[in-house]
Amino acid sequence: MKRYRSLAALAALFCATTALAQDAAPFALSGTWFFRTDAQANGRPVCSEWWKFGPGDQMLVNSGEEKVTKRFRVQQDDTGLWLVTETLATNGLPDCMGQVSTTVTPGENRIYLLPMNSGQVLTCPPPGRMPDGAPYISECYGAIIPADQVG
Q: Does residue 26 have a pLDDT over 70?
């Protein structure tokens, strides 16, 4: 009987620890990161940007000549980890692709994040679903790299 109580206590501790881990912030973004696309032209990324994650959920993006102010949060759901942003302002100059946005489109944008052991984070479209409902990830298009890892 004592053995079963120990197993029950161990199971309860595991469940409580799992619940606490799920409630904790899964991943934090702060400081300056370098974004680069996987697509290349002339041996260089088609697009590269500097992303600065600051206090008050503020995000600043330097993309080409464009400077964008955003609000951000990192969100975990049943499919994985997301960077959710909302553009607040732009200076209306050309971005890393040469495109110009003079107005702010309302609403949130979501980028699927896949943290790697190296500290880099792959940026991907939303995951697909297998026939059994399990998510799968394909077609990641870039990565964000902590500024101290950029050479």
A: no
The structure tokens listed for 88 are 């607040």
Is residue 6 one of the residues assigned to a domain? no
| Within-domain flag for 12 | no
Q: Where in the sequence is the domain holding 44, given as residue range(s)? A: 27-149
Asked, for residue 22, whether it belongs to a domain, the answer is no
Q: Any idea what the CATH number is for the domain that residue 142 is in? A: 2.40.128
pTM beyond 0.85: the answer is no
**What average pLDDT does the structure give for the chain?**
84
Q: Identify whether the C-beta of residue 59 lies closer than 8 Å to the C-beta of residue 32.
A: no
As to burial, measured by CB atoms within 10 angstroms (0-12 exposed, 13-18 middle, 19+ buried), residue 35 is buried
- pLDDT, tens digit, for every residue of 52-93? 999 999 999 999 999 999 999 999 998 889 999 999 999 999
CB 7: neighbour CB atoms within 10 A? 10
